[in-house]
Design brief:
The protein has 366 residues and is of the alpha/beta class. 23% of the residues lie in helices and 29% in strands.
Length: 366
């Protein structure tokens, strides 16, 4: 009997080809899409290429019909709102910049798909991510870099657990994007040229402020103040939810030169401004740790590795140390731009993830 596998179908070319490849490998493939909106128009998730909208369901259903595999739509609106939307709003209101895709992967997609797999008698789940899963000599599973450095998605998978990794297949880890599109064209998969989704699926035009004001009108922050690094009041700013560390565009400050957001003080409703050199740091702290290649690290032991502080960041050599029960401090070999509270810090050993956590600051906080 063929091993049964549940494939998360986003309606895009990657998950479609992942399903095709697994079927070709002899798996008993079932396609599923997680419906995370309560009703049409509830969230702004209908953009072309989005992974959560009705168009995604329609495209995924068409692909499954062509591949000749069963297809189901699962409603996970409540868990999506609880585990992704609400924390996203909370983080921005608290002056941080969250990464909802990482949280969605951990608490919605994998959790939901594994529950669906259990109900359908499937041992494995699969996705169209560009990453690989490896069983290391120490018996631990880790997410490893994809063949395609340009499409590598290991960063977004940094919070997956050992049980989740053990039951996951990622058939695209050894492919380039161009090869995936070619396979889709050769197999007449209709989404072969569908554009990739690059923004947060539930926030139209990356307008976080408007989204938060609409979803949480009673909690949305009012106008803040711009404060220069020497304490000078530069005048009225927009709500703090409009800004993130390292931001230059959209400040509209008559300084006669480019200036940058260096810190967001939600408690005092201030947006701190500085020069370009002020957004660089060689240190960070993070909490909410997830150990992947190792079960844990002893406090005080320093590990040489590479650290990545945002999705598009090139990993930089660093020394990582566990400095508390749930705290890692990292020192980078070179300055990194915009260490941003709320983003994830992911630490790599060779080509696989060692550990990850949520950035709390650049280590200079008092």
């Amino acid at each position: 009997m063929s091993e049964k596998v549940i494939v998360g179908m986003s309606g895009g070319v990657d998950s479609s080809v992942a399903a095709y490849l697994l079927k070709e490998q002899g798996y008993d493939v079932i396609g599923v899409t997680m419906q995370v909106w309560a009703s049409e128009g509830d969230l702004s998730i209908e953009r072309e290429g989005g992974c959560c909208g009705q168009s995604a369901v329609d495209d995924a259903r068409r692909v499954c019909e062509i591949l000749g595999i069963p297809y189901y739509v699962l409603n996970f609106h409540d868990i999506f709102e609880r585990e992704v939307i609400c924390p996203f709003i909370d983080e921005y209101i608290d002056g941080r910049t969250p990464n909802p895709c990482i949280r969605c992967n951990r608490y919605v997609k994998w959790d939901a798909m594994l529950k669906a797999a259990d109900m359908m008698g499937a041992e494995k789940i699969a996705t169209g991510h560009y990453a690989r899963i490896r069983l290391l000599p120490n018996g631990r599973y880790s997410v490893c870099n994809a063949r395609s450095a340009a499409k590598d998605q290991t960063y977004a998978l940094c919070m997956l657990t050992q049980e989740e990794l053990k039951r996951t297949l990622m058939p695209l880890g050894g492919y380039e994007k161009s090869e995936v599109r070619k396979i889709a064209e050769e197999q007449y998969i209709p989404v072969a040229r569908k554009p990739d989704s690059e923004e947060i699926c539930f926030v139209a035009d990356d307008d976080h402020e408007s989204f938060i004001r609409r979803m949480a009108p009673d909690r949305a922050p009012g106008p803040a103040r711009f404060i220069y690094k020497d304490g000078t009041d530069l005048g009225l700013a927009g709500p703090i939810t409009r800004y993130t560390v390292g931001q230059r565009r959209g400040l509209h400050l008559p300084m006669g030169r480019h200036v940058y957001v260096t810190k967001i003080d939600a408690k005092n409703n201030l947006v701190w401004i500085g020069e370009e050199e002020d957004v660089f740091s060689r240190r960070l702290t993070c909490t909410g740790l997830n150990f992947m290649a190792v079960e844990d690290l002893p406090e005080g032991e320093k590990i040489s590795c590479k650290g990545k502080i945002r999705y598009g960041h090139h990993a930089v050599p660093c020394t990582m140390e566990k400095t508390g029960p749930d705290t890692i401090t990292a020192e980078f070999a070179e300055s990194v731009r915009a260490v941003t509270p709320g983003q994830s810090a992911v630490f790599y050993e060779d080509d696989h993830i060692l550990a990850a956590g949520t950035i709390t600051g650049d280590g200079t906080e008092t």
